[in-house]
From TrEMBL:
Stored Pfam families: HTH_36 (PF13730)
Domain of life: Bacteria
Name of the protein: Helix-turn-helix domain-containing protein
Length: 111
């Protein structure tokens, strides 16, 4: 059985990651929702998400263009980084990878 303190310690990194988002006045509530969804879909220690705009839009009940605008905003503010990976066969559309930028999530109180 976990104690209250150990529960807090387990969730502390997750909570601290979102402090910067909460205090960033340049982000809209939708931007925060999109980031939160991307964060929840990240895999492994690389903090990479492979979700498409359509998947995110359907899940958050917004348009794909709203997702694109939010991703562009998050990218311009340094919360995420986008890379495209070519398929191994060389055919088809490149796979988009969205990386969470952990260094941006540390709130210093001066924003």
């Amino acid at each position: 059985m976990q104690t209250m303190n150990s529960d807090y310690e387990c969730n502390k990194p997750f909570l601290m990651n979102f402090v910067a988002l909460i205090h960033d006045k340049e982000l809209t509530p939708t931007n925060r929702e999109v980031f939160s969804k991307i964060y929840s879909l990240t895999r492994n220690d690389e903090h990479v998400c492979y979700a498409s705009d359509r998947y995110l839009a359907d899940d958050l009940h917004v348009s794909a263009s709203t997702i694109q605008k939010s991703i562009n905003k998050l990218k311009s503010l340094g919360y995420i980084k986008i890379k495209h990976q070519k398929s191994e066969s060389g055919y088809g559309a490149p796979k988009r990878m969205i990386f969470i930028q952990d260094h941006k999530l540390i709130y210093n109180g001066n924003q």
